[in-house]
User: Fold this.
Amino acid sequence: MATIFIDNIPYTVKDGRNLLHACLSLGFDIPYFCWHPALHSVGACRQCAVKQFRDEKDTRGKIVMSCMTPAAEGTRISINDPDVKRFRRSVIEWLMTNHPHDCPVCDEGGECHLQDMTVMTGHDYRRFRFRKRTHRNQYLGPLVNHEMNRCIQCYRCVRFYRDYAGGRDLDVFASHNRVYFGRHADGLLQSEFSGNLVEVCPTGVFTDKTLKEHYTRKWDLQTAPTVCVHCGLGCNTISGERYGSVRRIINRYNRDVNGYFICDRGRFGYGFVNSGERIRTPLIRRSKSGEMGPVSREDALKHLEGILYFGARVIGIGSPRASLESNFSLMTLVGQEHFYAGISEQEQSLIDRIVDILSRGPAPAASLKDAEEADAVLVLGEDITNSAPRLSLSLRQAALNKPMETARKMRIPEWNDTAVRTALQGRRGPFFVAATAATKLDEIASGVLHAAPDDIARFGFSVAREVDGNAPDVLLSAEMTALAGAAADALKNAERPLVVAGMGCGSEAVIQAAAQAAWALCGTGKKARLLFIVPECNTLGLGLMTRRGIGAAVKAVAEGGGDTVIVMENDLFRRADETKVKEFFRGFKQVIVIDHVRTATTGHADVLLPSCAFAESQGTYVSSEGRAQRSFKVCMPEGDMRESWRWITDMAEIAGRPEGKTWRNIDHVVKALAGLMPVFAGIEHAAPQAGFRMTGLRIPRQPHRASGRAAISANVNVHEPKPPVDSDSAFSFSMEGYEGMPPPELIQRYWSPGWNSVQALNKFQEEVAGPLRGGDPGVRLLQPGPLEVPAYFREIPPSFRQREDSWLLVPLYHIFGSEELSVFSPVIAGISPEPYIGIGDQDMKRLGVNEGDAVAVTLPGYSRVFPVKKTAGLPEGIAGMPAGLPSAGWTGLPAWAGIVKKVLHKEEDRHA
Amino acid sequence: MLTDDERREIEREVENCVNRREACVEALKVIQRSRGWVADDQLRGLSDILDMTPEELDSVATFYPLIFRRPVGRHVILICDSVSCWVMGYEDLLRHLKSSLGIGLGGTTTDGRFTFLPVACLGACDRAPAMMVDDELHTDLTREKIDDILRRYP
Amino acid sequence: MAERPLTGDIRPGVMPDISAYESAGGYEALRKAVSGMSPEDVRKAVTDSNLRGRGGAGFPTGQKWSFVPPGEAASLQKYFIVNADEMEPGTFKDRLLLECNPHQVIEGAILGAYAIGAGRAYIFLRWEYRLAERRLREAMAEAMEKNYLGKNILGSGFSLELRIHTSAGRYICGEETALLNAMEGRRAIPRAKPPFPQVCGLWGRPTIVNNTETAANIPPIIRNGPSWFHGLSLTEDAGTKLYGVSGRVKRPGVWELPMGTTIRELLEGHAGGMREEYRFRGVIPGGASTDFLVEEHLDVKMDYGSVQKAGSRLGTGMMIILDDRTCPVGMVHSIIRFMARESCGWCTPCREGLPWLEKILNALETGDGRPSDIELLEEHTRLLGPGNTYCALAPGAVEPLQSGLRFFREDFERHIREKRCPWR
Ligand SMILES: Cc1cc2nc3c(=O)[nH]c(=O)nc-3n(C[C@H](O)[C@H](O)[C@H](O)COP(=O)(O)O)c2cc1C
Ligand code: SF4
Ligand code: FES
Assistant:
């Protein structure tokens, strides 16, 4: 702690801060541009100037940049000194010499940091009378829009994109007042985090192109806190809606989870909510072969009465992409013994293993923040950038932790960003990656292994053995042994070692090996953490609820048959082989499907009920960290769409179950679940309940400037329509309500007087870049168990053996394409890959194929032809196939497959 | 793409460097020496050798006025426009050069003979006004002397 | 004639070679240092000599060297860099040394490297100095051959690799931290200080950057000792200085003279006075980024302290003369145009402020000036002052403007009143 004097009043600030950080944290308004709480200080924009005085007697003082000056003990500054106010106003005046006056047509207008700072500094009169410089804009792909004339050269874009996120295709060109930020040539930005430019840029240079398609001003958006549904990390987001469609998603700060940034899948994948594939009305099949016809909700329920009669044998299939509440209500309806997770057998065994490991301890699950703070990292079997993108961003920062010691030795404060980077000279901390193919994180790794899943596991076990001689021994090649030794040394020497693995390469052994390595480290007294990547937003939550996947369901049906199956928010054709799923459905008289988008499964429904996407539903999701987080509805579902749990509660009523009457809002479901299953006891505290009020008021989803609400239907009726009532949460669907700061779980937008841009977030934090006031949202469900190291896994898989006639086909992940829901967004579909077979250099020769040639792939019950794509890093004897692409069908990888070169007919003709 | 000679010369340059990036300005100059300017295509070729993306290279290349990212004439005239030369009659010479070349600063004559650019103080202030044509420095310029000099560059 | 340790042996039109240099005592200092002096001894000699940097800022060289961390960090790779970028308008002193006395610059670099324990040294040379590059390369080859450079220099165990980096333009490259970025193959943007290059410089290692003239002063200091160096000067600031004059004088040029020679002596004595039909109006004493001095200052001694007291800076010691037939507004305009173009584009005041000034001055020159322009110009000379910008480019850029407005205000006002440049 240090005492500093601001305009002669003493304040206590934390050690090691710069003045800007300290003053903003104390609640002072100092304007700034180039500084960013996650990107730190570079001193370029000169906007954050304050006057510094040597001592009490010094009355002249000198202008310093607050972002570049330590808040050291006894520092005396003035924020209000007239000279420095004048200077700050001049900085804006300079920036405005070239900034266009296009706020009315600028997407940033109304939430623009430059607008805010202009008002804050008081620059209001134009003295520059000459021409402005102009630039040409670039096409940067369908996600991010570029409008260079608005640039104020704060350098944040390149600092985020390059220094922070590791992108290399955005840079700054030219010099003096012609500097230009863009790409070498037009084209899609290659970074998975390009969308953050939208928030990082303080003006309208980089804006959300998907928002542009259906543009709405911030003050016309109805917003609510949501949790991203596109992977298992559970990033916090704010979704904005208008007139029934989701318009955009921005980051919602949660220091423990995503901090300031999310990935492009999370930001731009929302289009599925608005897509033409939405199911909007209940549909019923009149006879087994007949067409589906729309019915009203009442008729649908009446129809269900005939199906859900007393004594009917009904099973329920839940979903890892549905909320805990929806899953639990289905489980309650059909009874625990008839409820299945509906994930593939492989997924089920992997998640079971993960749940066991994380609940047992001693290595606790790591949050994203823990990951970012790790000082040595071992990654086993995951292409993180594509399977859990936000985590890769955290790990990129983690890689700097160890080298940071160099800077510390030179007494360079961590916030002095350019100096730190100069001192580090691109050095990266201990970071070891073992994956089936090349991954983007390889470039920051100190050691890389590309191997078959079994060998990755063996490598992990070997690291464990190197750490603790009591762990079972593994015989590896000399090269791998050396690598394992290096990794083990690095992890042992670290303060906060982290082991990352997951369900990505489909190997239980890899998961065990990761646990083994972490346990071995714990045994040496290290606070090692584990992070298991799970594919979907509630995979872990569902894994905590049931251990029975689709395999168990199929078995149960085969044994006892059934009358009705209720499939909720799950496309079983993504879980198992097509013929198997079809056969499964044939086993029932009635197939009831509740979902929000059309999938292969909805095509098999006899009764299809429209559920709500995340934007229209409230629910709790458990992230890979075991953190239960509540997501709220942004808007009311249209027409007959209902949240799955509501459909099921209706069914419960039909079936005469008590819940049908008692579950009137979601809190009742939450309470029942928390009461029934101890592991979920915490979820009641994941967010305030429906009855929560601030000074007696609800929290408005609309900003109090929401325009034209009464005018929307003025041609029909000048009376304002009554806003819908939200029975599930403390939010209102109107602009009336509590205007102050809501509790952290209920932050629906960032705004504070004078701060209209996202940077208003500063006001919501206890300390800038620190925890949110009131704590960061979410409740961790998995408490570390006993601290002693459990018995080591002794079953180690044999090493991978290449086969003559078949190939081990492994899944390859793509940020755009592998995930189910985002692909329903046309913009994401447009940048997803077409199916291909990935083959390494050597094997392409062996097969006699070139890139683009066709190969036939055969697996049991599966035979398709795909083009070949050269894929770096794939070891010999291993081929890859993109995971999850809808057009490729289910393959259940990894698996042995036949691959042969296929001469296409056309070519045959040509040769003939 | 780059010629073998260019590659060799660049690799030689790289050998003496602490890391590959260090060689980038020199490498750009190698290309420029053999071709007059650096086209996108060569930038991409260089990008492979130096392990820098085209963006990273271009970011450096466009920072410098003496790396030409657009085609230039057979000869490049760099006229010093800094203060000593200005005092000694730069403006008159500029007018003269503009009219005899038929182009302004930044221009290239239609016959592709000259590109005409301003340059920072050439450190020849005691012999001002001064200019460089290609590698050669010309000082104590007058209108007549300039006519004479231009004739020497076909 | 006074002693001229930097240029005394330069013979006009004679190509310098190593034997000529040696026979005049060249490389004796190196021999002396590596055989009998520890690096500390060399550092001490330079400190005692009170040599101040000749690159413009005048920072004491020995003190700068002393910031290179001792102890554990001493074993780190370190670098010694000779700044031969010389792009300050009106400045052409380093060129003389580089072209005509390259061995002395090289010997200075070797001694500097020895003193701080650097294994690698660079000469950062502007591209346009083609002749200088040729002569430096020849000289380096000669020095290599004689084992003044390379492995195990003169059997002392000390090795040094010397390399030339030729730039591709941009004045900012001469700023010592921008120079480091330029050498690393990055955009030549200055770096934040602290940390200073002496601690975290090239490739993050301890680095010394010294001006060419500074480096060339080291061998004679080592050879003849600090007190000899003090004796060369007429004032407190030791040594000789390369002074130059350009503009409408009879004999523009550069001369090595005792530190503290007066402006009058330079102008009237060495440069031969003003040309016929021209009268003296003012002088920018030390390269384009120093304040004007006028008639009343002619007897000011050209040393760091005296020029500062007179309201300007010694800078590079290279004077640019303003005569009575040249427009002071135009002269300032030329400087500001240069500075606006050479701004690196990193910090706002310089990147946006200088082009604005340029536009205003251009408006004045073309008859579009407005009365409020003077106030804007004046305001900017304060707003772009030291500390307000990221590096010293912009504060230097506005010095001639600031003093121009003071000494030649009437000229500025006339431009506005008459809506034209009275000199055109
Ligand atoms: C914009 C700018 C340009 C500079 N250009 C040069 C230069 O060309 N040569 C030089 O020696 N110093 C130049 N300097 C000064 C250097 O930053 C540095 O102070 C000097 O090289 C140190 O050498 P010295 O201590 O021997 O004087 C420049 C400074 C600035 C701010
Ligand atoms: S003052 Fe600022 S913009 Fe100007 S050269 Fe220095 S850092 Fe660059
Ligand atoms: S925020 Fe401090 S200089 Fe930009």
